[in-house]
Amino acid sequence: MTRRFKSIVILTGAGISAESGLGTFRDKDGLWTKYDLNEVATPEGFARNPELVHDFYNARRRNLVEASCNAAHVALAELEQKFDGDVLLVTQNVDDLHERAGSARLMHMHGELLKIRCEACGSVLAWREDLDLATTCPACAITGRLRPHVVWFGEMPLYMEAIYDALALCDLFVSIGTSGQVYPAAGFVADVRRRGLAHTVELNLDPSDGFSLFAEKIYGPATQVVPTFVERLLSV
Ligand code: APR
């Protein structure tokens, strides 16, 4: 690939954080092989058993606080800093490893594990501790109405208008570490192809469900293939 690009949209999924020790969802012993997503990642599951949902996210939050970003996150932050053009990073991940690596042009379309939302006053607050039904909202002092600021199945992902605007303008779309099984993110490559102007690349451990839609495919662990890919992008 020797073409110079001007506007890049990058989509990341759980695979980019796998080598940081955070579980993926659909791999062997992924999170959805251990938990029923209907119980811990839907509004109905939260209404039915809020304690179970708080326990699930408390365990993931504790795991995240102990984790570190990896070479793939660092490479994407370097791309944002050094690329002579626009780079938007759209992540399905709720971890803050992109931020810790230095990425700033970043949209968490599925929310953020280190934030909570009060269903009484609507406040969204940074939060690194455990959360439970006895926790009082620091903003409105109401107890028991706090939830993880994470988008559950059946809920609207965040920043969709801005994401579709960026997809309409990009000349390079890169998908990293996602199985391509969850919409709307899984449909982004088709949206970009429909315009026919952009190059599309998939970097993943193995072919995603949408692999055939990508013009270029690079397979291997993210900490190996992402830095090499970023080096190529910065060298043209
Ligand atoms: N390097 C690169 N890719 C990897 C690595 C690695 N070290 N390890 C795993 N992968 C790839 C897997 O091959 C798989 O295709 O990462 C992908 C992870 O897929 P999923 O577990 O389905 O995660 P993701 O695509 O991010 O899920 C999307 O589903 O459950 C919801 O909201 C949740 O954001 C999540 C969404």
TrEMBL record:
GO MF, one annotated term: protein-malonyllysine demalonylase activity
Catalytic function, reaction form: N(6)-succinyl-L-lysyl-[protein] + NAD(+) + H2O = 2''-O-succinyl-ADP-D-ribose + nicotinamide + L-lysyl-[protein]; N(6)-acetyl-L-lysyl-[protein] + NAD(+) + H2O = 2''-O-acetyl-ADP-D-ribose + nicotinamide + L-lysyl-[protein]
Cofactors that this protein relies on: Zn(2+)
Name used for this protein in its record: NAD-dependent protein deacylase
Compartments it resides in: Cytoplasm
GO cellular component, one term: cytoplasm
Pfam families: SIR2 (PF02146)
High-level lineage: Bacteria, Pseudomonadati, Pseudomonadota, Alphaproteobacteria, Rhodospirillales
Enzyme Commission number(s): 2.3.1.286
Domain Deacetylase sirtuin-type: 1-236
InterPro entries cross-referenced by the UniProt entry: DHS-like_NAD/FAD-binding_dom, NAD-dep_sirtuin_deacylases, Sirtuin, Sirtuin_cat_small_dom_sf, Sirtuin_class_III, Ssirtuin_cat_dom
Chain's gene name: cobB
UniProt key word Cytoplasm: yes
Species this chain originates from: Ferrovibrio terrae
